[in-house]
Amino acid sequence: MKVKIQTMLGDIIVRLYDETPIHRDNFIKLVKEGYYDGTLFHRVIKDFMIQGGDPDSKGAPAGKMLGVGGPDYTLEAEIKDGLFHKRGALAAARQGDQVNPERRSSGSQFYIVWGQVYSEGQLRQFSKQMRMQQVQQAFNQLAAAHKEEIMQLRRDRNRAALMELQDKLAAEAQQQVRADAGMTEEQQQIYSTLGGTPHLDGQYTVFGEVESGLDVVEMIQNSPTGRGDRPIDDIEMRMIIVE
Questions:
Q1: Parallel, antiparallel, or unpaired for β 10-16 and 206-212?
Q2: Which residues is 86 bridged to in the sheet?
């Protein structure tokens, strides 16, 4: 399924992935309802991304802070291997891990990646960081499974046993994550040529990509912005399903 995002600067056609059916179907539903019509690309950061989908941006006066609006639901994360933040990727915005550990997506807000082109050295560092994030996530899951035991040891002030358990869980987390986990050859090739935002991989749901109109994305991400990264001149959108 494809969707055309019409703007004053031109059209962007995005293809939605079948591998992320929850996000695909929700996006199509909102487009058919006209939910996005009249909304703005309310947050634009040069060499990073353009974000839209906040219903509160419709007719918003200049200077109004935007970015917290949406429907009364969030979406289950569909973070999949092989779907990553290359230039032109369509992904779901969300609240941070502190208040959203399940990484559930906003019901409506999305962003389109622009990013940068990276050197081999930078990509090696990103790959190392990605593996560390995976190990930390595995450790957090193991710790959650042993929550009662950890709490009891803390109540008993049994520091030695607590440290022993934490070391055991850390070793299990290391074992769960492959030694070569991190960035695939495909990711490294694309990020070193086309570009993107590799530090977001594994953190947000990517559910589509731009098939045409990257030049429009480039123009939008170059737009002058003011407070809250909102473009000084509003960039309104309208969406239609492309059969």
A1: antiparallel
A2: 196
